[in-house]
User: Which sequence fits this backbone?
């Protein structure tokens, strides 16, 4: 695989079933309130064609951005890239300051354990893109479990055409697309 892999939403396919959320929780044995992936509904309850002016469900997770704002603002360097270019968090270094949550335009950083905190917000948690599964040659759990193919996995080069075909580019203005994909 060339380039840092990503998962992008296929906004034409998501039916808000929550299968991606269940797959993530089951794979990582996470509590029900965990939000490593979630489905955001735009124009909820509105009639009309999908995404233009009608209700549209969009699966959202960490995009492991090429120009990750969360990594840039972390004062302890707890957020960094692994050898595969994935944006990961070192739980032992995270202060719980939540600068990353403020910086991320997609809401990926979460703070599920506020009661056991070092800083104000506990230790940050987010999608790891199922790095151990990737090492075994498997797709992330959310992608492999999605019944409607609403999550697409690949490198930026592999995803660029699909990104536009499935109307995911409607979610990103030029600046956000640059943050996610950079020059990859």
Assistant:
């Amino acid at each position: 695989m060339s380039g840092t892999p990503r998962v992008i939403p296929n906004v034409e396919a998501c039916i808000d079933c929550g299968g991606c959320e269940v797959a993530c929780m089951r794979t990582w044995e996470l509590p029900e309130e965990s939000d490593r992936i979630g489905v955001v509904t735009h124009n909820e309850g509105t009639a009309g064609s999908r995404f233009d002016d009608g209700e549209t469900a969009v699966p959202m997770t960490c995009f492991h951005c090429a120009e990750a704002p969360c990594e840039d603002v972390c004062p302890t360097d707890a957020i960094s890239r692994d050898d595969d270019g994935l944006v990961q968090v070192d739980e032992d270094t995270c202060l719980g300051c939540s600068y990353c949550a403020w910086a991320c335009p997609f809401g990926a950083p979460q703070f599920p354990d506020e009661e056991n905190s070092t800083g104000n917000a506990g230790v940050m948690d987010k999608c790891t893109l199922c790095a151990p599964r990737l090492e075994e040659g498997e797709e992330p759990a959310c992608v492999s479990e999605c019944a409607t193919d609403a999550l697409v996995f690949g490198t930026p080069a592999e995803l660029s055409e699909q990104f536009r075909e499935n109307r995911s580019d409607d979610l990103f203005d030029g600046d956000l697309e640059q943050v996610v994909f950079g020059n990859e």
User: Anything to note?
Assistant: The beta strands are 6-9, 37-42, 56-61, 79-81, 87-89, 151-154. The first helix runs from residue 19 to 28. The first strand starts at residue 6 and ends at 9.
